[in-house]
From TrEMBL, chain A:
Protein name (record): Uncharacterized protein
Lineage per the UniProt record: Bacteria, Pseudomonadati, Bacteroidota, Chitinophagia, Chitinophagales
Superkingdom classification of source: Bacteria
Species for this entry: Taibaiella chishuiensis
Automatic annotation (TrEMBL), chain B:
Gene Ontology cellular component annotations, sorted alphabetically: cytoplasm
Molecular-function GO terms, alphabetical: ribosomal S6-glutamic acid ligase activity
SUPFAM superfamilies the UniProt entry points to: Glutathione synthetase ATP-binding domain-like
One GO term of the biological process aspect: SOS response
InterPro entries referenced in this protein's UniProt entry, alphabetically: GRASP_w_spasm
Organism of origin: Taibaiella chishuiensis
Name of the molecule in the record: ATP-GRASP peptide maturase of grasp-with-spasm system
Length: 75, 324
């Protein structure tokens, strides 16, 4: 995926804000307090996901030096 | 067998699984993400009620069920969606009933929540909370500008928030979208005065702004409460809504002992809404009053157990093992 330039992002946001302004009176009455963030999806390739075996978990990021609680303390 | 409905990157699930394995439990099935119900079956008669939602997890072998996160969904094909709009409305309502039905079946096992709890209603929850004598903020739900102006005249400041859902995803194309955050925000006089009285607005929630000594995050779990105080008021980023985390200077979070009567009221509240697990948000005012805000059935747990050294994940595992 090619990342968009800052000017392209800003153009998209401006178009969106214009659309919101044009429809402001058909939106929730508190729409003036909404905040926005332009997101480009950066899907992590399958091969870069970390699999946690029998936990059936797949993660793009995890806690550094993760050690399960049950291995830290003996109850 | 223990069935856990979660998401593939949900860390609390990993911690609970770790405890289950530590205690010697190997018969665990973790199901991640959205589960389509199209080809699943729900069987109900005088002798049994079960669903084969989780494939090889034979319902007869299930001993306990934890709904952590994720969805149940009925997939309606694109040609139908693009056809007559009334069709889709009908099918969505129809299959919402089925989803709730399947969800109820899993409540017959030893369970922690169910998918149905994701539909808990913040407005009725406020009413229930008031009904068990918990303090709640004065709340107005309306699109009537005159009513908002009259409400704002009662209090020095008012806030606004979403009725039920605080995120909107406005799709731009396959790779990008605009994330709209409908967070709790101050609704000041400038914004109120800018509203035309003749309009076709949709309603929103307005509440009195509460001055806070600190905020509380409370994890309620089958009658147990684990409480944490969040010192959010010295940081402008988190003053109105602590969920706007400041990762540079995070709020100080410490264990907190709730007054006994508040614990009892929270227990009654959770029983009334028939939810056995949830993350409750409250604030403590400068005069020491505890005010209930809302409950989230799928709230974040790790920051609570990590900051306060609470054995929440271990207790969840023990509950699933019938050991608590």
């Amino acid at each position: 995926m090619i990342a968009r330039s800052e000017s392209e992002r800003q153009k998209t946001i401006n178009e969106f804000l214009d659309w919101l302004d044009a429809h402001r009176e058909n939106l929730p009455v508190n729409a003036a307090t909404w905040t926005f963030q332009y997101i480009e999806q950066q899907a992590v390739p399958e091969h870069e996901l970390v699999s946690l075996g029998k936990y059936n978990a797949r993660k793009a990021a995890s806690i550094s030096f993760y050690k399960p609680y049950s291995k830290i303390c003996k109850f | 067998m223990i069935v856990i409905h979660s998401q593939q990157d949900e860390s609390t699930t990993d911690d609970v699984l770790d405890w289950l394995y530590y205690f010697g439990m190997e018969q665990v099935k973790r199901v991640n993400g959205t589960n389509p119900i199209n080809a699943k079956a729900l069987r109900i008669n005088n002798h049994t009620q079960h669903s084969n939602l989780f494939d090889d997890a034979e319902s007869s072998a299930i001993n306990a069920y934890w709904y952590r996160r994720g969805h149940l969904a009925c997939e309606i094909s694109e040609p139908i969606k693009l056809g007559y709009s009334g069709f889709v409305t009908y099918f969505e309502k129809e299959y919402d009933h089925l989803t709730k039905g399947i969800s109820q079946v899993f409540k017959q096992y030893r369970n922690i929540n169910s998918f149905e709890d994701t539909g808990t209603n913040k407005l009725t929850n406020l009413a229930v909370a008031a009904g068990v004598d918990l303090l709640i903020p004065d709340t107005l739900v309306t699109a009537d500008v005159k009513a908002i102006k009259a409400f704002s005249a009662i209090y020095p400041r008012i806030i606004t928030k979403a009725i039920g859902h605080n995120r909107i995803t406005a799709t731009i194309d396959d790779n990008s979208y605009i994330n709209i955050a409908v967070d709790t925000a101050i609704f000041d006089q400038d914004k109120i005065n800018a509203l035309p009285e003749e309009n076709n607005f949709l309603p929103a929630v307005f509440q009195e702004y509460l001055e806070k000594k600190y905020e509380l995050r409370i994890f309620y779990f089958h009658g147990q409460v684990y409480s944490m105080a969040i010192f959010s008021q010295l940081n402008e980023a988190t003053k109105v809504d602590f969920r706007k985390h400041d990762t540079e200077t995070p709020n100080r979070c410490v264990p907190y002992q709730l007054p006994e009567d508040i614990e009892k009221k929270l227990g009654r509240f959770m029983q009334h809404i028939a939810m056995n697990s949830g993350s409750i948000d409250m604030v403590v005012t400068p005069s020491g009053e505890h005010v209930f805000l809302e409950v989230n059935p799928v709230g974040q747990l790790q920051w609570l157990s990590a900051n306060c050294n609470y054995p929440i994940e271990r207790e969840i595992a023990k509950f699933l093992l019938h050991d608590s």
